[in-house]
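Hi R.,

Here's the chain you asked about this morning:
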Amino acid sequence: MNLARDLSKANQIDDGTVLLARSGNAYDRKGWSKLYGQANRQPALFDRCLAVPASELPFALEVILKPGSWVAVLVHAPDLASSYPFPFGYITADPKIVDNYKRSIAELAAKAEGTGAVLWTKPDEDAHRALNSIDAALDINVADAD
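And the predicted structure, written out as tokens:
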């Protein structure tokens, strides 16, 4: 079972899933594309990917948000015995908490470098349409500023 692909398929009615990838340079962007983007005949794990400034997020933080519904927050800490990352965190549907995370993620997404920060899109869209979808989902309305 692939969680990212399953979430993407389950959320098609909500316009799919987006990976906000920490990226400080072209090497980071290439790495995200290699790990999660389309490879040969295998589709991308996320419908879209938007590169956001690497300095804006702690490296060990993972946030999974379905706007207006729920948020899961994980911190990956090294296991003392094996040094492998061990995720721990919570998931909530509390509307106030979900809205606070949505607002924080919207602020982060708004710092992306416009269409140049779109690493990949759905097959039937361009970078402008991808940004419009992300903006609409997060209620930030900055895509037209590009």
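The beta strands are 18-23, 48-53, 61-66, 70-78, 85-92, 118-120.

Let me know if you need anything else.
M.
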